[in-house]
Each structure stands twice: as C-alpha cells, then as structure tokens.
Amino acid sequence: MATFGKIETHVDPSEAGKSFPVKTHVMFTIRGESQTGVVAKQLKNAAVIEIDEKKDNEDLITHSNGVVVINYKQMKKI
Fold it and tell me: What's the superkingdom here (predicted)?
C-alpha cells in the first residue's frame, strides 16, 4: 500500500553537525557573499537553513524560497 503524506524520519547528524542544533543562528557564504540564517532542520552532513532577509539578498531569497542546504563545515555560529 502506498503511503501519502509526510514521513518523519530521525537523522543523526555527523560529529560536525552536533554543534549546530535546530534554531542555531549561523553565518555561511553562498554565491560569494556572506549570509546569515537559522538552522531549520539537521541532515547527516548538512543543514537546511532559513536565510535571514535583508535588502541586499532579496534575489537569493526569491530564487531559493528562503532556504538553502549548507554543509556543516561551511557554517559558523554567531
């Protein structure tokens, strides 16, 4: 039988990811520009980040729907 809807699975983050729990405010670089955001979901080697909206990143927000996936090694806590 097919399962329709959202399936919740628990993902254990890597050692690098344990420093970035959900709701952690982080800084990262995308398209050569420094951005900030909040960890929305942890994955094994990366996290889904909700990008902070600013005047100079409106194009990025539009194209990414406000979220990006960033490797833990490319993030810094702020």
Answer: Bacteria
